Amino acid sequence: MLRAIYLKSLQRREAQANTLRKTVLRLLEILVPLKELVEWAVAAGHHEKSVRKLLSEILCAAGLRRRRVGGGRKPDPLAIAVLDELTARYGFPRTRKLIWAMKRAADERVATLCQQEQKRQEAA
Hints:
By secondary structure, the chain is mainly alpha-helical. The chain has helices at 2-11, 17-29, 34-43, 48-61, 77-90, 92-123. The protein folds into 2 domains: 2-61, no CATH class; 77-123.
């Protein structure tokens, strides 16, 4: 029964957004896996990416996260050490400006090195 309500609500997303949200949360409450909700929707002709995005929005709005906060790449420990040193020496606002200046200088240096390498290859 909840499956039918879920699929019907997906078809009329705008008009039945509240019903869809409540149905999804109820299905998750009775331990229907999120993967299964996606499979049902795809089997009913919906695009997987759209369904995943919609379910993610519903979960986030309900305060339920699928991923840990702060997921992704971790900063390089050396970069953190340099940041700490610069912050201790110059304070945070000045450190931020220095880091941006360092990035610009590094980009320019890389561009110069690439040009030199290209000229070297052309000469060979």
